[in-house]
Structure formats: C-alpha cells, structure tokens
Design a protein that fits this description.
Radius of gyration: 22 Å
Strand order of the largest sheet: 9-10-3-2-1-12-11
Largest sheet: 7 strands, mixed
Order of helices and strands: HEEEHEEEEEEEHEEEEEEEEEEH
CATH class of the largest domain: Alpha Beta
Number of helices: 4
Distance between the termini: 54 Å
Number of domains: 2
Helix content: 10-25%
Strand content: 35-45%
CATH superfamily of the largest domain: Copper amine oxidase-like, N-terminal domain
Shape: elongated
Length: about 290
Amino acid sequence: MRRRHFIQKSLLSLIWIKFFPKLRKDKKILDRNKISFFTETGKQHDIDGFIENSLQYLSISQLSEVMAERDFFNEEKLKLVLFKNNQRITFTANNTFVKIDSNFYQVAFPVLYRDSEFWIQIDEFVEIMSNYSTIKLYYGKNDLSLSYENKGYTITGVDVAKRDNGILITVRTTKKFPKKHVIAANKNGRLHLTVYDGLLNELTYKDYPATSIIQSIQGIQLKNTAELVFTVKGKLKKDSFAIVDNSINDDILLVVNTKLTAAEQKEIEENEKIIAEAEEEAILNNSV
C-alpha cells in the first residue's frame, strides 16, 4: 500500500514539474487568503495562504513562528527547520520531500519559496504531520481552520459579530449537528446553548474578552452533552434569540437581539474605541 502511495506521489510530482515549470520560481503572490490556526492553548492566529491551480497553500514560515519551539533558516540552501516535540522537521524549497528527523517523506507538490517565505500544499502538510510526526493536525476546509487534533473535539470555537440590533454568535463545529440536537434557552437572564452529542474544547473560548455585548462565555461538558453559557449585557427577552439555518457550512448560528440602555451602549462604544486606538498604536509601533 505504501509503495503504491509512493508511486502515486512520484507521478504527481513529475506531472507538476512538467506542466507547471513556471510555478517553481520565486514569484510574487498577489492574492493571499487567511487560515485560522489554533494553538494547543486555543489561541487563534491568522496564517497567510493562497490558492493556485485549485490547491490551497499555507505559509510554513508564518506557522513556524507560532507553532514551533524554535526554528532555523538556511538562506544559502533555502531550508527551513522546525523543532517541535523533540522532532526536527525540514522543508526545502522546490523539493517534494519533507524530512522528519532522519526520515524522508514525499509530497505530491513541491515546497515553494515565494516572497521570502516557504509554502506547502495544506492537505499534504496535514497528512505528513499527522501520519509521521508527533504533531497531529485537523484541517477544516469549510472555514479554512487548522488546529491540533485533540480528543475528537466537535465544538472548536466561538465568534461574536455585531448586528444592527444585536449580535450573531457563530459556534464553529467539525460536523453537522441535527436541528433537534441544538437547543437555545434563556435561564436566569443567561443564554444557554446546548448541543447534544457535542464535545467542547474549552480552550477556544475561555479567554474571550468582555468588551462587547457578550460579557463572558462559560462551557459545561457532560458525558453526552456540551453547553455554552453566554452572559449578555442588557436585557435578554424570552423571544430575543433564535438558531438560524446555515447553508454554507456546519457551524451553528445563533442570532441575539438585545435591548441596551443608553449608558450600556455608551460603555460598549467607549470600550471599542479604546481597543481600536490600542490596535492602531500597535500597528504604528510595529511599522517603525
């Protein structure tokens, strides 16, 4: 089986080199997209990627900065070495082999070197890492997310976005839950989202900043049920929230309509202004 897999990879590599020779050059990447990478502590980082010939690529250089314990770049030989979990992982520009310690593993599409960064086809990267290294990864194609594959989590994160008269809560999942398995309820002024047959990764929400309408997020994991508890700023009425259909991906969408007092709305706006000013100052400091 492995021999057949090796032959398939070799044939793909030869086809790639024959029909796409120009792609091997260090040319500019015009249109980048973002891949959300979640560390072992649940912290999110946006890693650059791009699509070429319907293939999604990932910047190993940027990923190394947040994932590796340390790394080493050999500019003369165009090699990038990542050190993680007592393993040494080596990527070489325009090469179809990834080296893990002293072993070589072939990928179908060569590692690229563009804009002074190393890039790899993301499916190939996840396959190599998960099968031959101590780094087990999960790639969510629907939401372009990359995370550690730990314990089979099915609820992997929470996003909150403002709307005209409230918020949209997006609960990221790795599978589609039946409608009857997802229930929203108002309990003592708090919004409870219960997901039957859900497994919750608490690290993705525990550091949620209390700066918007949502003051805090708590999680409760029972044997066969996961529950997220949202403390909402303002008056939460019985009929002010609803789970809405999502035809784009598997995420759970929860719309919340909130009624804030003038003082509460002013406090939220002031907090958001402080955050915006801090981010602007950080950008200016980094550009100097």
